[in-house]
Amino acid sequence: MPRATSLLLAVSASLALLASATPSLAQVADEPQTPPSASSRQQIRVAKLFGWQPLDDQNLLLWTGKEEVWQLSLSYGCDGLKRARAISVTTDRRHIKIGKDRVQLDDKRCTILALTLPDEKLKKRYSKARKGYVAELLPWPDTPETPVPPPAANGSA
């Protein structure tokens, strides 16, 4: 029995040591939570596109302002991206949302999987959109961009 007792005491001491080194749930709740990466977004608001630059068959840079650029990662199968000169980007009420919106080129529709800020190396290499590479916003058919006013009563405006 003394051996079992000493083993039990050793296990109890180890558990006590582990418990003192492990933060409690209250301590963990008080610690600041790390925010999602500032360079990654679920959606971005856009009013106008200023051009684009293909990086490879699944990534492109999209200028949403003269100096505001986003890297879009697309679904597999956009093999014509490097050869395209014009693209359309679908929007939902002027927001590009990952998983919903697409980049359309010719007959291909590529779902946007990620929206991130490009790293400094890419920003330096591509400081502005490639000349002649046109991008246009394409609203979803069921979400009008501007509300249609009701007709005037009695023909008055």
Automatic annotation (TrEMBL):
Pfam families: DUF6491. Residues 1-26 form the signal peptide. The keyword Signal applies. The keyword Signal applies. Keywords: Signal. It comes from the Bacteria. This is Uncharacterized protein. The lineage of its organism: Bacteria, Pseudomonadati, Pseudomonadota, Betaproteobacteria, Neisseriales.
